[in-house]
DNA sequence: TAATTTTTTTAGATTAGTCTAAATTTTTTA
DNA sequence: TAAAAAATTTAGACTAATCTAAAAAAATTA
């Protein structure tokens, strides 16, 4: 049985490892976990001891197979709880993350399997992120950013790469929700903002900053 | 914000205080929390410091108004989660307690209010125990034990005073569920076991040990 | 490549919550 | 009511997780 803290480190290492072969640095971990590098060094020793990470001093860390499996099980729980909060309790997608941050550490396999069934075996969380299965396996979808779509193309909004409440609330106000159809009319030469036609009914100007964080297919 | 441990102590003091004016003893707390008396003494000092208990060395403890309010809020969360687990996730009443023991510490007022609404504002948990309101107030019902009911009387099963999985599973096997009608036919002179007519359809012999732990009205 | 800067680790403390063993207080018993 | 027993508290230690400051290693720069 691992502590909340250990589970959070594993999850953080997992996220920081995405899209890179190199090990995750001590400083990056300290940033993400809101601790100091010294504390991270300490914890890395313990996680290595337990066989959850590959760690050589000064070289950064990667997850072992077991470490990755555990990280994905925590992510599974996090995302399933987010679905529960959004779909059953009517929380906004900007509110679910902080609560799931606590719920993800509840230790009961039966609970999570029953929750999964209760929710109808969802494949994605409220932000469009895929939900790992009970074995700790997760499909990897590769989506493009709206900012990379060429003029004239029509796409579907499938996710976000920024999860802050502020960003998500901004999307709410703009009426941008998962699954909506976006036709890229024009990309401004001046500020790279994107003019999109939403669900064939209305036109919206999306800043480059926002477009960069919208995932589409 | 109080720690899981502090919340558990408050809850335990609350339960051990039921039906007595005297303070709860250090040893009783050590028993209930699976710790040693020395650890309890330490914790009592800290809880007194924070104004949650009335404590004088060697004299036992009682909850302050604030301590009791907090204890009841934890109990509220515990019981609401138990209802969720039993009604929505189909857990047996013998399984919900251990899981609720973890869920009761999730800190989000909005979460618990929304959960309450989702569950339809239940008044009782799966064991027949009343659910405190958001202000930390709980109605106190006084039920009798089946073992105290005189022959010929008909009652309704409203709760249990023993919550162990073994006992609850025993009731399941016997077909004794909350709300069933029990007519006391005869109480044995030999072993005080009770012969009851259940829902007017079948007769069952209930040991004194079981009858003592069945609450009826 | 040698000096400087940055990153990381080690050393030494701190806090919450726990423990055992010893001391103290209260309660019970004779 | 004094001795014995039981209950409780104190003393001193331990672990997990954290910190700051200092030392060491790696990376960058001149
Ligand atoms: Mn999240
Ligand atoms: Mn977490
Ligand atoms: Mn319970
Ligand atoms: Mn608890």
TrEMBL record, chains A, B:
GO terms for molecular function: DNA binding; DNA-binding transcription factor activity; protein dimerization activity; transition metal ion binding. Keywords: Activator, Cytoplasm, DNA-binding, Manganese, Repressor, Transcription, Transcription regulation. It is found in: Cytoplasm. Its main location: cytoplasm. InterPro entries: DtxR_MntR_Metal-Reg (IPR050536), Fe-transptr_FeoA-like (IPR007167), Fe_dep_repressor (IPR001367), Fe_dep_repressor_sf (IPR036421), FeoA_core_dom (IPR038157), HTH_DTXR (IPR022687), Iron_dep_repressor (IPR022689), WH-like_DNA-bd_sf (IPR036388). GO terms for biological process: negative regulation of DNA-templated transcription. Pfam families: Fe_dep_repr_C (PF02742), Fe_dep_repress (PF01325), FeoA (PF04023). GO terms for cellular component: cytoplasm. Residues 1-64 form the HTH dtxR-type domain. It comes from the Bacteria. Belongs to the DtxR/MntR family. Homodimer. In the presence of manganese, represses expression of mntH and mntS. Up-regulates expression of mntP. This is Transcriptional regulator MntR. The lineage of its organism: Bacteria, Pseudomonadati, Bacteroidota, Cytophagia, Cytophagales.
């Amino acid at each position: 049985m691992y502590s909340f803290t250990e589970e959070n480190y594993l999850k953080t290492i997992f996220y920081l490892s995405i899209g890179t072969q190199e090990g995750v640095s001590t400083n990056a971990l300290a940033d993400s976990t809101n601790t100091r590098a010294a504390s991270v060094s300490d914890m890395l020793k313990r996680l290595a001891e337990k066989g959850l990470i590959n760690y050589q001093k000064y070289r950064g860390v990667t997850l072992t197979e077991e470490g990755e499996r555990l990280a994905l099980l925590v992510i599974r729980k996090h995302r399933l709880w987010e679905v529960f909060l959004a779909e059953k309790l009517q929380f906004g997608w900007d509110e679910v993350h902080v609560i799931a941050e606590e719920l993800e550490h509840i230790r009961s396999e039966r609970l999570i399997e029953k929750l999964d069934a209760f929710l109808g075996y969802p494949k994605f969380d409220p932000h469009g992120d895929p939900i790992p299965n009970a074995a700790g396996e997760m499909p990897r979808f590769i989506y493009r950013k709206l900012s990379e779509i060429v003029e004239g193309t029509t796409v579907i909004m499938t996710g976000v790469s920024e999860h802050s409440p502020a960003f998500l609330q901004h999307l709410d106000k703009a009426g941008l929700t998962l699954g909506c159809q976006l036709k890229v009319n024009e990309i401004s030469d001046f500020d790279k903002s994107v003019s999109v036609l939403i669900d064939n009914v209305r036109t919206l100007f999306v800043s480059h900053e926002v477009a960069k964080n919208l995932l589409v297919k």
